Amino acid sequence: MFDLNTEPHLLLAVFNSMPGAFLLLSREFSIEAISDVYLEATLTERKNLMGRSIFEAFPDNPQTPEAKGVSNLRASLEQVLATGKPHEMARQHYDVPDPENVGQFVERHWLPRNTPVLDAQGQVRHIIHAVVNVTGQVQADRLLRQSQIREVAAWKAVENQRAILQRLFEQAPAAISLFEGPEQRISLANAMMCNLWGRSPGQVLGRSFNEALPELQDQHFSEQIATVFHTQVPFVGTEIPAQIFRQGHLKTGYFNLVFQPLYNEQGQVLGVLNVAVEVTEQVNTRHQVQQLNEKLQVINEELLATNEEVLRTQWALQSLNEELEGRVVQRTQEVQKAQAEAERQRLRLERLFMQAPAAICILGGADLVYELVNPAYQQLFPGRHLLGSPILKVLPEISENKVYRTFQEVFRTGKTHKEQELLIPLARPQDGVWEKRYFNFIQQARNDWQGRIDGVVVFAFEVTEQVKARQASEASTQQLRLITDALPVLIGYLDQDEKYQFANQAYESWFNQKPADLLGHPVREIIGETAYQRVKEYIDRALAGERLNFEASMPYREGFTKHIRTSYVPDWQNGQVVGFYTLINDITNQVAARQSLEASEKQATALAESLLLANQELQQTNQELLRVNVDLDNFIYTASHDLKAPILNIEGLMEALRDQLPPASIHDKSTQYTMHLIVDSVQRFKRTIDHLTEITKLQKENSLEATPIDLATLIAEVQLDLTPDIQAAQAKIELEVGACPSIYFSPKNLRNIMYNLLSNALKYRSPTRTSWIKVHCSQKDEYQVLSVSDNGLGMDLSGKPKLFSMFQRLHNHVEGSGIGLYMFKRIIDNAGGKIQVQSTLDEGSTFQVFFPRNKQ
Where is the PAS domain (predicted)? Predict the structure, then answer.
């Protein structure tokens, strides 16, 4: 060991270069040496710390009053001084001053450990304060919690958007349906479409087009849907005739139809979306006007050929003309009304686009100029003026992105393009900072009245938060997989077909297959037919919805049998069991131990009879030991009395020797040290004699008469005796003894017990927290149980036999004789009671004293 006074330069050089963050503190907590790693971690310089108190150099951050770094560190250092033992602190939030901003602090979290440096006499001379910087870990945990909160919010937003789209579909002003797959199965149909077909949703949903609507089977609609599905080219038709049921009869109606291919998330065609608007009334009105004009033409020709007839029937024609003119006016008004209705429907559709939750825009011409932008699309790019501008002018960031190339391809080829979660980096208008943003979108060509491509229609959704939430979820899933693989328990999941859908790493050591190779295989194939029959009943019960636990012996294969404890947990989804989780613990060793225990119990039964005979001999021996014990107590009393005189003579001779020594010898350090050792030995010898005397008195007082004692009054008297100690410790004492108003015992011995328990709780208190003591009494079976609990230093009860041994102590940093608990236990044992102790280091202790009830 280096001495800081004799070899300071060498010690400091070694200390400074240590690979950890360390401080060397004096007993007054002044900084005497600092490692280079510590300076780097605390953003400090050695010249600014040397000689200063650690609490002056590193005060609490006033912005984090809950941290309490100074008080926690001071309590730990004082405990090290008091006990002479190392103390490892819990993780501390203890910020350090910011060297670049006066009055500001830099966040820091530490794992501190304080270790005493003892001198040759075992006294604490210095304290090594070591810390580990865990700030990065704490900040990472904080970021993870924030990310999880954002993930929940993102899922809620997605669910809300889905609900809005569902309402939009149901309330749309047009008839809408979806035909899925080549079989054209009807998976969606809103109320307007069902009314148009003359059927309820239950009559059409889930059926194919021809099965649900047989009257349309020979009208070429099914062929047109198949063409759109296979070519992925939309179909738009106007005034298409169709024979449909109306009031129980087939009638001809006319419709404006759109058949639009719909894609799934992988870009594959899911089905065909049908949007229909009925225009039967407008078509019939136009046909009536055409028929009326044809009739007028015939009449005019007849008038020219038969002028004479015209003259004779002029009066009739005039009346007829008036009637015809009235009918023309009426039909004209009907046509105008139909046109107004069509315009209203157009405006309604336009409002639908503008109010849709999806982002929709129309780009016109080869330069892709914004012609229509709904509010949802504008919100994607706040601060940018879109209408009337080419897309590259307002979004120059996409010039090298895939999205711009697909725009050009759709405009050139007319093929609809769909993207899922495409990354498009965009700059924030307010500060120009680039952000990673993800979008789902469909780009679809727009055709003019001649069928030529003149623009692109875009339907888009921003999914940035969902992507980030999914990425975080995938990371969490991977972490969960690592955790389950680390467990020694077999964790799996079986579906309704009894096939593995999940298996953790523990399966490999049992079945010699990778967990991934088990997936999709039946459990019967993996565990073997014999083992399968053992658990088949439990599998059926789990798939029926029962949660159960069971034990079984499983012969998986020859030479490999396991005793298992298993839990089956059903997986309920939408009111049905879709599978169940399996958790399998290997209890082979426990079963073997249990079987061994049963065999031992049989042997114990056989030994019991022989023990009964031996017990009689033991009772006789015990009586002889009691007589020997009384003789031993008499010897202890005599020996302690006879030893007092020689010790007093030695003490007197020491005083005489001190008076006769020359002054120079008295002040010599070697002489002083030797005399100190002799005096200390004499004092210890005297204390030992006193303790022997106390033990002898205890033996003679075993027969003290027992009387009823008011427990609350006795405790109050003991508290008065201990008042200085209670005030010095600032201890709080809580009493709950109402259940035991009196205890039948020797008053002197009960007072001795109560004094011993309270004084020990005060003496061995923790220096890091306020002392707290609770005295409780209850009735239990044939005992009255007096319990004394504290929050002091606690004890390591692995040495419990030492706890009640004579002259043995578990804490040596405070004064004590080592016989208090020994006498305490002797008193209780002699009275037929018992003692129980629970204790945890640095948390506290509880002593329970069981007093036999008065049987009178």
Answer: 476-546
Cα-trace Rg, the chain: 48
| Model confidence band, residue 307 (pLDDT cutoffs 50, 70, 90) | low
- The DSSP secondary-structure symbol of 795 reads -
Same domain for 782 and 726, yes or no, is yes
Sheet holding 417-423, edge to edge: 369-373, 359-364, 453-462, 438-447, 417-423
Q: What are the structure tokens assigned to 462, written together? A: 């921003």
- 327 in a domain, yes or no? yes
Q: Tell me whether residue 459 is in a domain.
A: yes
Looking at 454-468, 491-505, 530-544, 596-610, which range is the least confident one?
A: 596-610
What b-and-e string marks burial along 437-463, b requiring 16 or more CB atoms within 10 Å of the CB? Answer: bbbbbbbbbbeeeeeeebbbbbbbbbb
Q: Which two tokens stand for residue 343?
A: 């315009």
Cα-based angle 452, 458, 460 (whole degrees, multiple of 5): 165
Interatomic CA distance for residues 777 and 522, integer angstroms = 61
Check if the beta carbon of residue 398 is closer than 8 Å to that of residue 392. Answer: yes
Mark whether 737 and 812 lie in a shared domain.
yes
The alpha carbon of 328 is separated from its chain's Cα centroid by a whole number of angstroms, namely 78
- The residue segments making up the domain with residue 69 are 8-133
> Tokens for 250?
């087939």
Q: In 10 A of CB 151, how many CB atoms?
A: 19
* pLDDT tens for each residue of 541-600: 999 999 999 999 999 988 899 999 999 999 999 899 999 999 898 888 888 878 877 877
> Which whole-number Å values give the CA distances from 16 to 19, 21, 40, in the listed order?
9, 9, 12
Structure tokens belonging to residue 635: 């010897």
Domain boundary among 278, 298, 329: 278
Q: CA-CA distance, 469 to 152, in Å (whole number)?
A: 8
Cβ-based neighbour number of residue 742 at 10 Å: 15
Q: How far is CA 689 from CA 207, 306, 696, in A?
A: 104, 161, 11
Mean pLDDT computed over every residue of the chain: 83
| Joined tokens for residue 825 | 């236990």
| Total length of the chain | 856
Mind listing the pLDDT tens digit for each residue in 70-118?
A: 999 999 999 999 999 999 999 999 999 999 998 899 999 999 999 999 9
Same-domain status, 86 and 198: no
pLDDT above 90 covers a percentage of the chain that reads 40
Label the pairing between strands 92-93 and 109-118.
antiparallel
Cα separation, 504 vs 90, in Å, equals 34
- 733 vs 53: CA distance, rounded Å: 35
Contact between 670 and 705 (Cβ < 8 Å): no
Of 534, 555, 586, the position where a domain reaches its end is: 586
